[in-house]
């Protein structure tokens, strides 16, 4: 009997309200399969959602409490780390191999990709040079795939993967890498990450007129993948991690904490950095979720009161609240807050933009103590941004060090976000799968794992 093979396409930001005339390929797939809205993992962010789909557990068990968190022993925040060892518990491929040890798996740009026990993997991984430079690159499993795939497809378009130039090019390259992997290795299960909608919906808002064109663009990419896989006898599943909803209110919790004297601020060459290990309380922000760490336990009631009375804060979770939603893990903050539907949390802690750290005006996903969607924008105050960027690129190419300080500090530019659970299920992520076991119009995020196992096993 021929082996059953499956491709799982993660179309970030896709929800049921997007199925229709602007997404004909996705619509056709939905019409001949089962479709369910997914009550999103909390927080509804990339790393937490993917970990729940892969393990069938909530963050309280798998440990991925957000895209980043504070390590109390290191006294450092850890954002967008890539080791699969951070995700605790058996993963999808472990379950599939219990009955069929020979099962092969490709993980293509899903997060926590490095050192996962999969057969083939491709993930973005810059090379950080000793002189402070950064060279864009990818990491692969096995390692020799890196030069092979770059030789066939060209360099991964890293600047289109995140930052002001983000666009369809990165999703196109990932889709081509999925086809390349299928042609070269024919894995039993392929996990493919297509991030395009994430960028435009956060930048412009999900209701912006141009989003219809972006939906059509990602639908073409998905349609080509569906046709390709099905022509090779591979069944296709489509899912997403969260839906993106409009926002208009950035909330600067760290600034409020600073005004109360709870932050420790260090002067570094005329700019300010957050000295987290010496703070009485501070915030690690991630979209519409924020983890509140309170090293000084004597002020936790005062911190809670401030949060309860802060406009834009929708819900404050203490120990009992974290347990209720599955966030009671040692990595979580002492308190966890979720924003009101039209609000989101920044990491900003400085009160004077002239004192902002140098990384604030750059694309720097690791150094910032929180997620920063403002990295999607070029500072509108720059008169000739293309000329300025060209000059900086030239300096870099001739070996001179330069800072790409072109990101604004205006959080009001951001028009879309995610992280909480939207009230309307049409804004929830979705699952399209060849299964009659989805259990109704909506399922939980942990149910997605069960469905993926069932679909892959047949």
TrEMBL record:
A GO molecular function held by the record: hydrolase activity
Domain of life: Bacteria
InterPro entries per the UniProt record, alphabetical: Alkaline_phosphatase_core_sf, Phosphodiest/P_Trfase
Entry protein name: Alkaline phosphatase family protein
């Amino acid at each position: 009997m021929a082996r059953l093979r499956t491709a799982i396409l993660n179309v970030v930001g896709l929800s049921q309200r997007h199925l229709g005339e602007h997404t004909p390929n996705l619509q056709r797939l939905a019409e001949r399969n089962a479709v369910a809205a997914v009550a999103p993992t909390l927080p509804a962010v990339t790393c937490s959602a993917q970990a729940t789909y892969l393990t069938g557990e909530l963050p309280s068990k798998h440990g991925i409490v957000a895209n980043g968190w504070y390590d109390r022993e290191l006294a450092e925040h850890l954002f967008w780390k890539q080791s699969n060892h951070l995700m605790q518990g058996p993963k999808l491929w472990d379950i599939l191999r219990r009955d069929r040890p020979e099962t092969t798996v490709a993980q293509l740009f899903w997060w926590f990709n490095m050192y996962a026990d999969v057969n083939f993997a491709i993930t973005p991984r810059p090379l950080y040079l000793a002189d402070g430079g950064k060279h864009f690159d990818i990491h692969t499993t096995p390692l020799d795939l890196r030069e092979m795939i770059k030789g066939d497809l060209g360099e991964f378009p890293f600047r289109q993967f995140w930052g002001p130039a983000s666009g369809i090019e990165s999703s196109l390259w990932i889709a081509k890498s999925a086809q390349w992997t299928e042609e070269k290795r024919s894995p039993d299960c392929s996990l493919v990450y297509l991030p395009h909608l994430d960028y435009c919906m956060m930048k412009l808002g999900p209701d912006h007129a141009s989003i219809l064109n972006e939906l059509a663009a990602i639908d073409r990419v998905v349609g080509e993948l569906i046709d390709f896989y099905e022509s090779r006898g591979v069944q296709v599943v489509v899912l997403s991690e969260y839906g993106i909803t409009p926002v208009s209110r950035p909330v600067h919790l760290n600034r409020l904490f600073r005004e109360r004297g709870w932050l420790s601020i260090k002067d570094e060459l005329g700019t300010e950095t957050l000295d987290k290990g010496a703070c009485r309380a501070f915030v690690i922000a991630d979209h519409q979720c924020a983890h509140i760490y309170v090293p000084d336990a004597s002020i936790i009631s005062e911190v809670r009161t401030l949060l309860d009375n802060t406009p834009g804060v929708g819900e404050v979770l203490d120990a009992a609240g974290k347990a209720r939603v599955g966030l009671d893990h040692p990595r979580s903050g002492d308190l966890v807050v979720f924003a009101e539907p039209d609000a989101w949390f920044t990491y900003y802690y400085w009160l004077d933009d002239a004192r902002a750290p140098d990384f604030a005006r750059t694309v720097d996903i690791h150094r910032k103590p929180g997620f920063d969607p403002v990295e999607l924008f070029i500072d509108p105050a720059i008169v000739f941004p293309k000329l300025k960027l060209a000059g900086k690129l030239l300096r870099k190419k001739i070996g001179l060090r330069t800072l790409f300080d072109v990101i604004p500090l205006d959080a009001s530019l951001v028009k879309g976000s995610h992280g909480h659970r939207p009230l309307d299920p049409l804004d929830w992520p979705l699952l399209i799968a060849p299964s009659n076991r989805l259990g109704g119009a909506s399922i939980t995020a942990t149910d997605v794992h069960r469905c993926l196992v069932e679909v892959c096993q047949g």
